[in-house]
Specification:
Elements lengths: L1 H20 L2 H8 L1 H12 L5 E5 L6 H12 L3 E7 L13 H4 L10 H16 L3 E7 L6 H12 L4 E6 L10 H5 L3 E5 L5 H12 L5 H11 L3 H14 L2 E4 L2 E4 L9 H11 L4 H13 L2 E2 H5 L4 H9 L3 E3 L6 E4 L2 H10 L2 H11 L12 H13 L6 H13 L3 H8 L9 H14 L3 H9 L3 H4 L4 H16 L8 H15 L8 H21 L2 H13 L6 H17 L3 H16 L5 H16 L4 H8 L7 H21 L3 H15 L8 H14 L3 H12 L7 H17 L5 H14 L3 H11 L5 H11 L4 H16 L2 H13 L3 H17 L3 H17 L16 H11 L4 H8 L3 H15 L4 H7 L1
Parallel strand pairs: 1-4, 1-5, 2-3, 3-4
Antiparallel strand pairs: 6-7, 8-10, 9-10
Helix pairs in contact: 1-11, 2-4, 2-9, 3-4, 6-7, 9-10, 10-11, 10-32, 13-16, 13-17, 18-19, 19-20, 19-21, 20-21, 21-22, 21-24, 22-24, 24-25, 24-26, 25-26, 26-27, 26-28, 27-28, 28-29, 28-30, 29-30, 30-31, 31-32, 32-33, 32-34, 33-34, 34-35, 34-36, 35-36, 36-37, 36-38, 37-38, 38-39, 39-40, 40-41, ...
């Protein structure tokens, strides 16, 4: 029954989304609400003549103008005009609709026509403000321009002009812009956040951030293209909903959308054939040196294309040329046949592929894509270079494409298989990656340089640690590799640079493995030494070691030092362009450092930085992005906010290869529902968790342990707290003071004095605000020190940890009542009431029930708090003054107040 209901709801969600996808004006209002509001305000301003909407050809200016006028129709008379491409040669072409309504005697001369049109507009408006819109305003003839100027200057109507650029407007309008009478409102490309917000309004249900960012990357922020792509993907079933969560098919592409083809065709058909040929060549090549283009095409044609905004020329170095709008390139490539692609390739590459050393990375990748689209193969050197560049840019699927068809040769085969394995690991396919490396023979390995062997071994170790029955072999693998390296290094007192770098690669692999299993203490000193080395064997290796060190410091209780190192590494990475593995390592470990320091908002900001997430990376690791956001919210005690990203993560994970992340997603979702007081839903996800095979890193297992036991504790499991304490003791044994403290903090809600003492001891080994908060709460709860409890609540408020603050406030309120501290009760009770209004369930309820006023006492209290005298209260309520005084005595005693001012503050 439930399955059928869910299927019906999903079907209705899809049908509603398809209907909304056909409403162009609703979409414009959704994604351009700020610009529409800005335009409406400009039109309403005194002295305003109107607005000019500017933007690229397909930026949706017409839809914005229509949405603007539609919104004004209730209060203004609106007129929609359009000038055709023949408008400049047609007198009054833009005003033909109005001209046709004039009587013949009003069309005798230009003056009569102008007066007639002004009178006609005024009559139609009937005293209301008149607003007219005009599209393709660059095609205005002189008489239309003069009439429009008079319409604005006389105040007959305000005008909404639509133009690609303000410079295209007739000269008569330029002074209006310069004097501020006309307001230009540019329509820029949508940001990822704007695209996501629009898609959520368009689709309904839960739209994961990953899906929004992918569609934004596909459309490059073009709102019109975004709507067309979403509508087409809905029809194809590539954008589908499951349990109310929208997901994109892994192979979702925007090719073959007729409306987008029509947009591009309309733009290019106006160009002469020789320009169209250049567009086709650039579409295939993506980016190519200007000198090579000039050897084939006319200089004046390229200059004209640059003036028209069709191409861009890079000013630096090789002066490479690319199409200004990548969308044009994508669409044009879809039109071209394989023979035509080959013909263009022969035209521009008549002397063969340029040497790898002489070609920039983006040119190389364009050449590789073009070659594959011609159904031919790149030379091996070019293919290997293109695959390596693709991995640095986090494009693992394209890297695998580049490596197809390379024959096995002893000198290149280890490199080919290593690159394939790196790509497969990026796609979270460790079994396949290991299979690639197992195909490399010992005699082929012997031909490699020491650092290449070390890198291949490090990749093998990374793949093995994700496979449960191979993870135990990693230490032996690295030890054997190190022994072989030292054996081959010779007996000289100083190893050469190549061997030194190989040793650093193996060290890094060991650090990563130890961090993976949670053995931070064993590598702490070695990490510190590598990061502090003034002459590192490889700077990127040093930075990756620093990323591990900032996480290790945090886990080992050196949280503030971990944060300080995070900022140092971020500054150093900002000065150089690191590889995709480095950026990914930094993002993942920085998230851990921020989250377990209590800086959950900064952790969220890190995940929401679109510049870190390419389309390929979103497709490969988007589920991790959603899960990270959910974890940040759930650790902050915000279960309601956590559910959206967590359910999104589950929808992506349950159909992908990342089974290792399902456990944390199940556990965090159970905890989120527990925070909302929904015990049945929480137990449902805990049951799924019980069927999950524990796997993955120490961090994964620790998150599962904490979230699942906290969910069980919130839903009434009496053994959950003791299991958290036992898990914390395991962390203590290995020096993982941070995680031990977090687990004990959760376990000590209503805990024994011994557990509170243990939490205090753990906090003594930690740094930072979270540690100080936990110490104050543990000590205050155990000793009853009200100052500690209120200080803990203040710290929790500073970190925006509402659930933690409510726990501190509840314990403090109980203590204040026990001490008969009326002032503290007055301060704490409103604070706890405010938190109760924000939280679905309080993690700790005050033991002492709050005072309850009778109905009559509530009436008297309300009047007294408003300043009403006792005598007046008696008159209003029909009581004696003595009775009112008696009620006030009871009210003051129950609420622990002594003045009417305090009563007013409390109520």
């Amino acid at each position: 029954m439930r399955t059928r209901i869910e299927a019906e709801e999903t079907g209705q969600l899809l049908r509603d989304a398809k209907v909304r996808a056909g409403d162009r004006l609703a979409w414009a209002r959704a994604v351009r609400s700020r610009e529409i509001a800005e335009a409406a305000a400009a039109l309403a301003a005194p002295g305003s003549y109107g607005v000019v909407l500017t933007g690229d050809t397909s930026s949706g200016k017409s839809a914005v103008a229509s949405a603007l006028l539609t919104g004004l129709e209730a209060s203004a008379h609106t007129i929609r005009l359009r000038s055709t491409t023949m408008g400049t040669r047609t007198p009054y072409g833009a005003l033909a609709v109005l001209l046709a309504r004039l009587p013949e005697d009003a069309q005798a001369d230009p003056g009569s026509i102008m007066r007639g049109i002004l009178q006609l507009v005024a009559a139609d408006a009937g005293g209301r403000t008149a607003v007219m819109s005009l599209e393709t305003s660059k095609n205005l003839d002189e008489l239309s321009t003069a009439t429009l100027v008079n319409i604005m200057v006389t105040g007959t109507a305000k005008v909404v002009l639509v133009a690609d650029r303000a410079s295209e407007l007739p000269a008569d309008f330029h002074w209006m812009l310069s004097e501020g009478r006309l307001r230009e409102i540019p329509l820029a490309a949508l940001s990822p956040e704007e695209t996501l917000q629009g898609l959520r309004l368009l689709l309904g249900g839960i739209v994961p951030q990953t899906v929004g960012f992918q569609l934004q990357a596909m459309s490059r922020g073009n709102p019109q293209v975004t709507l067309l792509v979403a509508a087409e993907l809905l029809q194809r079933g590539a954008l589908a909903a499951a349990d109310g969560v929208w997901t994109l098919a892994p192979d979702a592409e925007m090719g073959g959308i007729r409306q987008i083809d029509d947009l591009v065709r309309a733009r290019l058909e106006r160009q002469p054939p020789r320009i169209q040929t250049i567009v086709e060549a650039l579409a295939c090549a993506r980016r190519i040196p200007l000198q090579r283009l000039l050897s084939v095409f006319r200089r004046e044609d390229l200059a004209q294309m640059e003036d028209d905004g069709l191409i861009t020329v890079d000013d630096g170095g090789r002066h490479t040329v690319a199409l200004a709008d990548p969308l044009v390139g994508e669409v044009v490539r879809g039109w071209l046949s394989v023979p035509r692609r080959r013909e263009l390739r022969t035209l521009l590459m008549s002397d063969g592929e340029p040497p790898v050393e002489a070609i920039a990375v983006l040119e190389l990748l364009g050449l590789a894509a073009w070659t594959r689209e011609c159904h031919t193969l790149l030379p091996p050197r070019h293919a290997l270079a293109a695959a390596s560049a693709s991995l640095r840019l986090f494009a693992p699927r394209f890297a695998l494409d580049c490596l197809e068809g390379i024959d096995r040769e002893a000198t290149t085969w280890p490199t080919v298989q290593h690159l394939r394995a790196r790509a497969l690991l990026m796609l979270q396919l460790p079994q396949q990656a290991l299979a690639c490396l197992d195909q490399v023979a010992e005699d082929e390995l012997a031909l490699l340089a020491p650092s290449a062997v070390a890198e291949l071994t490090a990749t093998q170790a990374e793949a093995m640690r994700w496979i449960p029955d191979r993870a135990g072999q990693v230490e032996g693998l690295l030890a054997d590799a190190r022994a072989r390296l030292l054996l081959g290094a010779g007996s000289g007192p100083r190893p050469d640079a190549e061997v030194r770098r190989a040793a650093a690669v193996l060290d890094l692999a060991d650090f990563e493995h130890r961090a993976f299993v949670g053995d931070y203490r064993r590598i702490e000193d070695r990490l510190e030494a590598m990061v502090a080395d003034p002459d590192p064997a490889d700077d990127e290796i040093r930075l990756r070691a620093a990323c591990i060190l900032m996480e290790a410091r945090t886990m080992l209780g050196r949280e503030q030092e971990g944060l300080a190192l995070l900022h140092e590494v971020a500054a150093q990475m900002g000065q150089k362009q690191g590889s995709a593995p480095l950026r990914q390592a930094f993002a993942a470990r920085a998230f851990t450092v921020l989250l377990f320091n209590g800086h959950w908002r900064q952790a969220l900001a890190l995940l929401r930085s679109p510049s870190q997430w390419s389309l390929e990376r979103l497709r490969a690791t988007g589920a991790s992005l959603e899960l990270g956001a959910g974890l940040a919210y759930v650790y902050a005690g915000r279960g309601h906010d956590a559910l959206g990203p967590l359910l999104s993560a589950l929808a992506l994970l349950e159909r992908g290869p990342s089974a290792g992340l399902l456990g944390p997603a199940y556990a965090a979702t159970a905890f989120a529902y527990a925070q909302l007081g929904d015990a049945p839903a929480s137990r449902k996800w805990l049951e799924k968790l019980e069927r999950w095979r524990p796997q993955g890193s120490y961090q994964t297992r620790s998150i599962v342990d904490f979230c699942s036991q906290m969910a069980r504790r919130w839903t009434g499991d009496p053994q959950a707290a003791s299991r958290l304490v036992a898990s914390a003791r395991e962390d203590i044994a290995l020096g993982r003071w941070n995680q031990a403290g977090i687990k004990l903090f959760g376990a000590t809600v209503g805990g024994h004095a011994d557990d509170l003492r243990l939490l205090e001891e753990v906090c003594a080994h930690r740094q930072g605000q979270l540690a100080q908060l936990a110490l104050l709460l543990a000590r205050g709860t155990r000793t009853g020190r009200l100052e500690d409890l209120t200080a803990a609540a203040d710290l929790a408020a500073a970190l925006e940890l509402d659930a933690v603050e409510s726990r501190c406030a509840a314990v403090a309120l109980d203590r204040a009542r026990e001490m008969d501290d009326a002032g503290a009760v007055r301060r704490l009770r409103p604070r706890l009431d405010a938190l109760a209004g924000r939280l679905a369930v309080l993690p700790v309820e005050p033991r002492h029930a709050p005072a309850v006023l009778t109905d009559r006492e509530q009436e008297v209290a309300a009047l007294a708090a408003s300043g009403t005298s006792n005598r007046r209260i008696a008159e209003l309520l029909g009581l004696s003054v003595r009775t009112v005084e008696g009620h006030l005595y009871q009210i003051f005693a129950k609420l622990s107040v002594s003045t009417r001012g305090e009563l007013a503050d409390l109520l």
